[in-house]
Every structure is written in structure tokens, then in C-alpha cells.
Design a protein that fits this description.
Elements (H helix, E strand, L loop, with lengths): L1 E6 L7 H13 L4 E7 L25 H12 L2 E7 L2 E3 L13 H4 L24 E2 L5 H17 L4 E5 L15 H18 L4 E6 L3 H8 L3 H7 L4 E4 L6 H14 L4 E7 L5 H13 L4 E5 L6 H9 L1
Parallel strand pairs: 1-2, 1-10, 2-3, 3-6, 6-7, 7-8, 8-9, 9-10
Antiparallel strand pairs: 4-5
Helix pairs in contact: 1-2, 4-5, 8-9, 9-10
């Protein structure tokens, strides 16, 4: 069974942290890491299109993605570049991006439903996450795909991974038909990324229940699979009940029976037995692999269980 790790951007901010990641993966036989290099409309790589991530300010010469690719090639670990698509800014302190080049500052007309600043929720929902680019805006989609194409053209990555390729909730859309704009990015991305790097594995983190994904966040991922726009699906079955995990992944498998699938599992601290059971549930549901959210050096015991299960 294939095993992979989601690696959040705060775990790739130094060369040493990336070297530790690769050592942890290789010693456990984990051959794929999915590393977040576009977190909030910013760059954990060398870019002329988006500003460098503020977390990298202490070492302006360091290129995390370049180091990931080199380190992965040296030990036989495949690196997938993970990018948040429409989710472009959040901050625990409520501050805005410092860079005037950040799209939140440079192109406020691209933001979902004219999101006013600072941090006004356009739909008044309690589950608001942060600032999104508007999937309906052609300029926002073009910019986003230009960033993604630039990454795969310049870095020898195994794959490109979409996250937040959806609306925050259906209430933020002007119509339930707005799902077509989300799908348009995935459709156009398939062409552009494959042209830039033939053989690239295009993957997506998705809501595991296809009906919930369609109705709640306008994410019609079974269509993407059927059209061949996605090579690998990662349904995020983050539940503590193993029976629910099995049911969700089984429903996802039926919705995309011919598309490679990694069951997305949560690393709950201290829950080694639970993780072991959930890896088995993903296999029993028909997934070719499992991907763990998320890599953490303080939870190497869970990495051991995940790799061995």
C-alpha cells in the first residue's frame, strides 16, 4: 500500500528541517511527500509572480522547494508541490500581507464577493476561514494557473497537489452554478501543467463525501476524475470513528472507481492503535494508498505506526 505525508509549510522553513523530513520518510519507506509551497498566496520557492513567504524572511537566499527536490532526489523520495488554490490569506493576528505585491493588496478586485479589508466576512458565516480569491474572476484564475505552471516548469517535482480548490461554503457563491468556475481551473490546469511537465501527477485534497463536496463547497471532484483532469484523489476522511472513515472512503471510491486514490487520514496525537486501524480501513475501502495529515517531528511514533500498518 502506498504511503505519503502531507507536510505543512512551517515544517520546510530551514534546510535542516527538510533534511530531517527526508530522513524520517526514507527510514520508514515512505516514498512520497506532499509539501505545501503556496500557503496563502505566497511563495516557498523562487517566484517573480508572488511574494516570498513572510516566514522565510530570516534567510532570503533559501529556496525550500529547490532543497526539497534535491534532497528527495538524493534519497529516492518523490516530492509533490502542494498549493492552496483559492484560499489566499489568513493571519491569527488579523494583519494583512506586508508585501504590496501580494494579490490581496495588489488585486482586491479578485477577492471573493468583494471581501473588504481587514477581514470582513462577506457572508456573515461562523465558519469563515479567511480571504479567498473569487473562482468566478478570470484574472484570479489566470494568475493562479500562471503560478502553478511556473512551479512545474522550473522544479522537477513528481506531482502538483491542489488544496482549497473550492468555495469556502456555497453561501459565498452567487449561484450554485458557480461550481463551473472551480472546475474550469481544474480543467485548464490539467492542460497547462501537463504541457509544462509531461508525466506530472495532478492530485487534489477533496471533501470525502461527494454529495457534501458538491452541495456545500461546489467541489465536483467526481467530474474531474471522470474527465481525466485529476490523476490522484486524496479524500480527507478526518474522523475519529474508524467505521465512518471506512464508509466515507468507500463512498469516495465508488464515485471515482478508476482514479488512483490515497485515503486522507488525521494523525491524532497518541492514537497509535486508531491510526493503525484507519490505514487498514483505507485499504479495505479500495484506496491504493494513504496520506497522513500531517508530518510532525514530535509525533514520530505515529510515523512508525503509519509506515508499518
Amino acid at each position: 500500500m502506498e504511503k505519503a505525508l502531507w507536510v505543512v509549510r512551517d515544517k520546510i522553513t530551514t534546510p535542516g528541517a527538510i533534511d530531517d523530513l527526508m530522513a524520517d520518510a526514507t527510514t520508514r519507506g515512505i516514498q512520497d511527500v506532499v509539501a505545501q509551497v503556496r500557503g496563502r498566496g505566497d511563495a516557498y520557492f523562487a517566484s517573480t509572480l508572488e511574494p516570498r513567504a513572510e516566514e522565510l524572511a530570516s534567510d532570503p537566499a533559501f529556496d525550500p522547494l529547490a532543497h526539497l527536490v534535491r534532497a528527495g532526489a538524493a534519497v529516492g523520495v518523490r516530492v509533490h508541490a502542494w498549493a492552496n488554490v483559492f484560499f489566499v490569506w489568513s493571519s491569527a493576528s488579523g494583519t494583512l500581507p506586508r508585501s504590496p505585491a501580494h494579490l490581496v493588496n495588489r488585486h482586491p478586485e479578485w477577492l471573493l464577493r468583494g471581501q473588504a479589508l481587514p477581514y470582513l466576512d462577506p457572508a456573515g458565516g461562523s465558519d469563515w476561514e479567511g480571504i479567498y480569491a473569487d473562482p468566478k474572476d478570470a484574472g484570479a484564475r489566470e494568475h493562479t494557473l500562471a503560478v502553478f505552471t511556473d512551479i512545474v516548469a522550473r522544479y522537477r517535482v513528481e506531482g502538483f497537489h491542489y488544496d482549497y480548490v473550492r468555495y469556502p461554503q456555497v453561501t459565498y457563491a452567487s449561484s450554485s452554478d458557480d461550481h463551473t468556475y472551480v472546475s474550469a481551473l481544474v480543467r485548464d490546469g490539467a492542460t497547462r501543467l501537463r504541457d509544462a511537465r509531461p508525466g506530472i501527477v495532478i492530485s487534489a485534497a477533496v471533501f470525502p463525501d461527494p454529495d457534501v463536496a458538491k452541495d456545500r463547497v461546489l467541489q465536483r471532484w467526481p467530474d474531474w476524475a471522470r474527465e481525466g483532469w485529476i490523476d490522484l484523489l486524496c479524500p480527507m476522511a478526518y474522523r475519529k470513528d474508524t467505521g465512518t472513515v471506512h464508509a466515507l472512503l468507500g463512498k469516495a471510491r465508488k464515485a471515482a472507481p478508476r482514479t488512483r486514490m490515497w485515503g486522507g487520514l488525521m494523525a491524532y496525537p497518541g492514537e497509535r492503535g486508531l491510526l493503525r486501524d484507519q490505514v487498514r480501513a483505507a485499504k479495505d475501502a479500495g484506496c491504493e494508498g494513504a496520506i497522513l495529515f500531517a508530518y510532525d517531528v514530535t509525533q514520530r511514533d505515529l510515523l512508525d505506526v503509519f509506515a508499518a500498518s
